[in-house]
Design goal:
CATH architecture: 3-Layer(aba) Sandwich
Largest sheet: 7 strands, parallel
Distance between the termini: 32 Å
Number of strands: 7
Strand order of the largest sheet: 3-2-1-4-5-6-7
Structural class: alpha/beta
Shape: globular
CATH superfamily: NAD(P)-binding Rossmann-like Domain
């Protein structure tokens, strides 16, 4: 992945930040998109201390739900760095509620970020990847899109939509040597899971055959594989990283 150009959305924390580090540490050029300027600046400053002379790291403050902003970012990257090798759609939010209590705004915001945002980014890079006859698109979905969850009809619908988008886009772009795949994380160890409490954690762990939560590294390792030449004959797939939870 040396000198490959990688766009990562939702890159300012959690899984997105870990994916950024994974690619950057393997000498890729990384272009980060998030709404949190302060966190993006901190990541750039930290990683810049160990970058090679030819390596690039840039960030853009934007919301993936705004196609014009995303399109402009892609145009800037293309004009300066000539190509986009990999797009990783990681940006996502939750805003949970039972459907009888869910406000329309909660539904719209989750769909706009998680599903429309993925569409926007895919649309913005596709014509450039088609011209160069190469590209990898990796969409971060969720096992919730496969199995559903109480209080998350908006999130589950958005992530199920990402899987459908992934499969359809892989068929559209396969003839142009562009691979499109999705990753379904299960319960990943984050600040959120740390705050669930011991009883809730045990309840979740009992449903996981490997008897542990996943880590951000588990996700970034698979993202790196799907971006590399080792996965050139894999497309249209949704891969669960869930410790066997939905077997």
């Amino acid at each position: 992945m040396k000198n490959k150009n990688i766009i990562i959305t939702g890159a300012s924390q959690g899984i997105g930040e870990n994916i950024t580090e994974k690619f950057f540490n393997n000498h890729s050029n990384v272009f980060l998109i998030s709404r949190n300027k302060n966190k993006l600046e901190k990541i750039k400053k930290r990683l810049s201390k160990k970058k090679s002379n030819t390596q690039h790291i840039s960030y853009f403050v934007a919301s993936v739900e705004n196609y014009i902003d995303i399109s402009d970012i892609v145009r800037i990257i293309i004009s300066k760095y000539k190509r986009i090798d990999v797009l990783i759609n990681n940006a996502g939010i939750t805003d949970d509620n039972l459907i009888v209590k869910m406000k329309e705004e909660q539904w719209n915001q989750v769909i706009n970020i998680n599903l429309k945002g993925t569409y926007n980014c895919c649309k913005a890079v596709t014509k450039h990847m088609m011209k160069q006859k190469f590209g990898k698109i990796i969409n971060i979905s969720s096992i919730i899109g496969e199995i559903g969850n109480k209080g998350q009809v908006n999130y589950a619908a958005s992530k199920a939509g990402v899987v459908g988008l992934t499969k359809s886009l892989s068929k559209e772009l396969g003839s142009r040597n562009i691979n499109v795949n999705a990753i379904n994380p299960g319960f990943i160890k984050t600040k959120m899971t740390e705050n669930l409490g011991e009883d809730k954690n045990l309840d979740f762990l009992n449903k996981i055959p490997l008897n542990r939560f996943g880590t951000a590294e588990d996700i970034s390792n698979l993202a790196y594989f799907l971006a590399s030449e080792d996965s050139n004959y894999i497309t249209g797939q949704t891969i669960n990283i869930d410790g066997g939870m939905v077997v």
